[in-house]
ABC3 transporter permease C-terminal domain-containing protein (Coprococcus hominis), 370 residues
Amino acid sequence: MIFGHVLKKHISMNPVISGLLLSGVVICVYCISIMLGLAVGQYQLATCSNTEASLTIDIDGKNGVNMDELSAYLNSISKKGMVNVLYFTRLESKKILVGWDGTKGNNWFPITSGNFFNKEEQVAGEYVGFVSDNMKNAIAGSGSFEAGEHTYEVIGMGWIIPWSFASARSSQSQIDILGEEAGEEMQYMLIPYKCYKEEFQPEQILAQFNYASYEDLQKYAEKIQNMFPETQVYLPDSNSDDVLEEGRTQYEILAFLLCMIAGITVIRLMSEWITTYKKEITVLWLCGMPKVRCMLLIYGHWLLYYGVGSIIAIILQYLTFPLLQYVYGNAFPMTDSLIYILAVMFGFSILCTLRPMSKVVCLYTKGEIV
């Protein structure tokens, strides 16, 4: 009861410094939370990237695989779905056909002209194609290419080189049809999966999952291997969990430094704020409240300011996600990292304000007060 009464009275008598202190906490925690959120944002980006979230699936050349069953299974085992599934078949020594199930080709290479497959073209199985830039002369005039028994109208081109796919291919894979030996001379022709499965069997598959951790990929690989024994499934060489740990270490250090720098201003405000309690503490002390309890009362108010300011900062961060997404900051930090940094900052603020606090609570003796 005394706690709330003193707090209310103090705020009404010192609105400016109370408001500045709360604002300082909000700004400081907001910046720290964004900094820590960048690590999580980069991790989330890695868990749906082609290099950290793709499984390499080698197909037994003798028996092949039921593509409809495999495609349906790939889309069912992940709750968050797939980004793209790529089916590779070598047509000639320097030509590779890719059956593409998905619409996000820019995850793998830059699109230099035209457009990539859209959802309608994938569902309808339209005879359209997307080619590498080095096929520009080959399709000049006709604007199309032949694959199997069909002709495909080219709707776009991209800077596609062997490394575009080899970067995601597991080094443990026993099949290499991506054309690294041919370098930039290798030509790539991409067609919708629905058209591809009519005539072709894949030799190798790259399955890019959506928001899949390394642990998730391990489970998926085991399930695919058990369901389709004619395949060999390999995990990516890059581990998304390593991205998270590296990011956490890096941004926790930066957040700690930011905490120290930004905290200086907040602590200076806090020191001035503490001195405004002189009158309230004098009255409470004369009424019999011990000095330690007086000190705990002030720090209790500071804890309340700190908690409310932190909550406001987190809400503000959520509201600014649309802007933060451009720097991959539209993610909340790991809870343990945020609590650790905030606890350090709170403890640091207490240590740095013990001197002004001692001046407030070290009062005259009662006999000296007239």
